[in-house]
Amino acid sequence: MIFVPTAAVAFFGWFEEFGVSYKVQAYLIQVHFVLISLCILIIFKDRYDFIVVQNVKLHYKIIYYLANLIFGCLILLPSYIPNIDNDLEKSKIFEQYPFMPPRFFASQTHVVTDNPTLAVSLICFEILLIIVQMLYFTSYTIWFLREKSSHLSDETRKMQLHTIFSLILQTVVPILILGVPVILSGFFFFLESYAKVFDIATAAVILSHGFFSSICIIYIHRPYRRYTKNLILCGENRIGYTF
User: Fold this and answer.
1) Phi, psi of 2 (to 5 degrees)
2) SS (H, E, C) the chain
3) How far is the CA of 198 from the CAs of 6, 123, 204, in angstroms?
């Protein structure tokens, strides 16, 4: 639980019970975003290697992914290195924002950094760097399929393009939906202001993630689309089973 627009975070869970440092927990939360972005990058990079490059040695892939992971982990460290007096920082925050709820004063609440703007800027820079790579691999693959893929048949090119556009929709929709709270939190950090509507908007957006992802999957894949259409129109749905 983050007390926006401050860097105070309430930690609940096994790590807190086992006495893991709150700085380590906060750092792992940001690394988690890096790992999610890297997993999405791997999807499009593998498609690029398969269609464009075709023969890429495994150790080159491992080096490339490890370089992204190590850089992403190292760039987040500067905001967590300085030592912080937790009680002093919480008192400063309360003087500036006296509307803090009682949970802010709980022992599980810690101020993880004295420079939240730096922390948000670094994670946004790392995610932006991965997005730029994704855009390159995706756009070049689409261009290659449309212009230079003479070794592929028309049917194969059409199928590969459909696969890529499906991957784009299935990844962009969750990223946009889950990225809204991150963007809003960064916005409030830079403005050093707070609005109750942030909590409501964050909850509404996160709760709608599964719904919009399901709509996206139904729209992209023809069997799901056909089944849903027949279900709504009370038509006949035939389901085949494969063993």
Assistant:
1) -105, 130
2) CEECCCCEEECCCHHHHCCCCHHHHHHHHHHHHHHHHHHHHHHHHHHHHHHHHCCCCHHHHHHHHHHHHHHHHHCCHHHHCCCCCHHHHHHHHHHHCCCCCHHHHCCCEEECCCCHHHHHHHHHHHHHHHHHHHHHHHHHHHHHHHHCCCCCCHHHHHHHHHHHHHHHHHHHHHHHHHHHHHHHHHHHHHHCCCCCHHHHHHHHHHHCHHHHHHHHHHHHCHHHHHHHHHHHCCCCCCCCCCC
3) 14, 20, 10
Mean pLDDT by 10 residues, the chain (243 residues): 68 74 80 85 88 82 90 85 77 74 74 76 83 90 77 78 82 73 65 61 71 79 78 62 39
Which residue in 97, 83, 70, 72 sits closest to 23, CA to CA?
A: 83
- Indicate if the alpha-carbon torsion angle 90, 94, 97, 101 is positive or negative: positive
Query: Token match 């006495």: residue?
Result: 19
- Sketch the domain layout of the chain as residue ranges: 2-150
**Amino acid in position 107:** S
Terminal Cα distance for the chain, rounded: 45
